[in-house]
Specification:
The chain has about 325 residues and is of the alpha/beta class. It is built from nine helices and seven strands. The chain has a seven-stranded parallel β-sheet, sandwiched between helices. One of its GO terms (cellular component) is endoplasmic reticulum.
Length: about 325
């Protein structure tokens, strides 16, 4: 049976598209479900006695601390509030019967905090580092209109960029000596997608992505696994989502899903719904970048307008309260 040239081109196109779809589906299924079920994901057994988690008192950070404790690792909890750290540490020790150590530092501060962290973790066999601490905008905004932009930009860089870099420097040498270790650097889906009105935030997360990519290549010969995490929205104080939904998981569900991907892919959106959404939008961004830009800009512009209306209402309520007090 002979085919015309047009039919051959059509068959070749169908075959190419089918192969592309099959490959993407297989990658998703393997990294999300199959690889872990076959025992191919990274085991935390004998990786080290301690795990260090930054931003450990809320959200994803706390969920990572609890998940690692459930695997028998002792936990170094690093965050800003001593009171919250003490409470989380007590709960983890009680529930998981592991040791904890707390370090209260503000990652928006300068480089001097890392001297203290270095002294506090000295002598600990650290097998896992979770670079989770981060901060974002109060609401999407044009760069020149960000409140206290100069001070905010420095705090953002210290918290999102300097923290990841310095914490890796602190733990890598001992991991190399033992030829084992795991570092998870929490970035964001905004690192790989257009994110207007969140320019500084997405840029710091893009740094985390590139830094993790090259660091993973550097230290793979030493037996160290370095993975970049690219979450979408999760129920947390930073996201301001208070209730879970189909695409907005609880922190523990996100972390449990992500832990199954360890060692199976360099960058992971973690939760299976996030992986589908990120895969869809990154492919769409390749084919039709203007579409993705329009979607993100429209969504973030709407969020900005709602936030500005709330702020205006709050100002009016405060002014009315002051006027009422004066009348009395």
């Amino acid at each position: 049976m002979k085919y015309t040239l047009l039919e051959l081109i059509g068959l070749a196109s169908i075959g190419t598209v089918s192969w592309f779809v099959f490959r993407e589906v297989w990658k998703f299924m393997y990294s999300t479900f199959i690889g872990h079920a076959l025992g191919r994901s990274l085991s935390l057994k004998n990786i080290g006695q301690w795990a260090v988690v930054t931003g450990a008192t809320d959200g994803i950070g706390r969920a990572y601390a609890e998940e690692l404790a459930s695997h028998g690792l002792n936990i170094v909890l690093i965050s800003r509030s001593p009171y919250k750290l003490q409470n989380v540490a007590a709960e983890i020790e009680s529930q998981y019967k592991v040791k904890t150590k707390i370090i209260d530092v503000d990652f928006t501060s300068g480089i001097e905090i890392y001297d203290r962290i270095k002294k506090e973790i000295e002598g600990l066999e650290i097998g896992v580092l979770i670079n989770n601490v981060g901060m974002s905008y109060a609401y999407p905004e044009y760069l020149a209109e960000v409140p206290n932009a100069t001070e905010f930009s420095q705090s953002l860089i210290n918290c999102n960029v300097v923290s990841v870099t310095q914490m890796c420097i602190l733990v890598l040498r001992q991991m190399v000596e033992r030829k084992k270790g795991l570092i998870l650097n929490v970035s964001s889906a905004s690192a790989v997608l257009p994110t207007p009105l969140m320019t500084m935030y997405s840029s710091t997360k893009a740094y985390v992505y590139k830094f993790s990519e090259d660091l993973a290549l550097e230290y793979a010969p030493f037996g160290i696994t370095i993975q970049c995490v690219l979450p979408g929205f999760v129920v947390s104080k930073m996201s301001r989502y208070k209730k879970p939904a189909f695409r907005i998981p609880l922190p523990r569900d996100f972390v449990r899903g992500h832990m199954r991907t360890l060692g199976l892919e360099f960058a992971s959106a973690g939760f299976w719904v996030h992986k589908i959404l990120l895969g869809y939008y990154t492919k769409l961004n390749t084919v039709s970048p203007s579409t993705v830009v329009n979607v993100t800009f429209t969504n973030l512009s709407g969020t900005r307008q709602r936030a500005l209306r709330r702020l205006q209402m709050q100002r009016e309520q405060q002014e009315n309260g002051i006027d009422t007090a004066k009348d009395k």
